[in-house]
Amino acid sequence: MSAIAFEFKALSSDGSVQKGVTKAVSESAAFQQIISSGLTPIQIRALHGRRRSGAGRGARSIGLRELSVFTYQFSVLTEARIPIAEGLRSIADEESNEKLKSIIEQVAASISAGSSITEALGPFQSVFGEVYIQTIHAAEKSGNLVRVLNHLAEMLDREVETRSQVRSALLYPISVMSMLVIAVFFLLTVVVPRFAEMFASRGVDLPLPTRALLSLSALIVQMWWVVIPAGAIIYLLSRRVRSSSTASLKVDRLLHRVPVVRSLLQSAALSRFAHVFGISLSSGLGLIDCLEMAGHASARPLLLRDASRMAEQVAQGGTLTNVMPACSYLTGFVRRLLSAGEQSADMPGMCQIIARHYDREVRYLAKNISTLIEPIMVVALASVVLFVALAIFLPMWNMMAVVGG
After folding, report:
1. Of 135, 163, 162, which is closest to residue 150 (Cα–Cα)?
2. pTM of the predicted model, to two decimals?
3. 3-state class of 225 per DSSP?
4. How far apart are the first and last CA of the chain?
5. Strands 4-11 and 17-24
6. 190-213 residue pLDDT tens
């Protein structure tokens, strides 16, 4: 059984209260350790228990920006040769996010109790991510902790910047489409039923667009109790699809057939791949582990599949240059630079060049994505407005013709 860190309060022989952290396989074993040290325990609490799981559940409220700032502060304090546990506690004292503050304090307590940084971060994998923790693990073993922490902070900063740019670019199209959805919902639930009553009382023959619109309106108004559960089921099915490797590959393949989406997804994935690949190599990991970690960090099932395939071929004795043709996701630019890096023994340097190139590509695409989406948005808006207009006005024209005749 692995040891657990316990935080305790105890009375010393002179009656003063002392606080500390000890590691033991169980609470009773921790109790015995404290007694054997000459103290009388009055409170013992496992740091790996309820408090940690609560922090894990709150991982979603800890953003990339906060992790980036924490990583940068951690690298500065480590470079300044401040003891790690002491440095982490000073970071926690200044942290405004209560969940992140609690996690940092627990990590510091575990390190004070004798755990390595990797072991202390382990229970919070849902917050930091597997790539982050494994990179720290390799950096600890190789002694490159400061440099790797700097690289991780820079990578998280770029990720935050990219996401912010994409969100800003998508804000206008999403706002317009949201207003369109609200307007159509209002028409279907309020306006169309009144027109339906009028058309029914006059006995007007309804054209196909009107019948389709009335059917949709009746579905929403009368069968809302079916529509809402259906939407929930579709959402749950989409989550299952994302968790299934086979289904996620098919979805990813479909997304990469859309011209604009393909460019953005591929550039962002190759940027993350190059960043993590270079950091992993710098931290002392083997080529196979680096390929697998970079594949996972790319967040694209297609690139993960190809990276795993390359790792398998390298494990069988191949060189990176020889196995890269098996990876269809990598562009010719990436292959040439990685091959040159392998020949010159400067793979991390080449990864930085690749990452900078695709970071620029992502920034350019993010800035221009609204321009690229606008034609699609205009066509969608025009189609919806035309359909609704025809569905409402065609019967009215027929009715006017009957009255006029």
Report:
1. 135
2. 0.68
3. helix
4. 92
5. antiparallel
6. 888 888 778 777 777 778 888 888
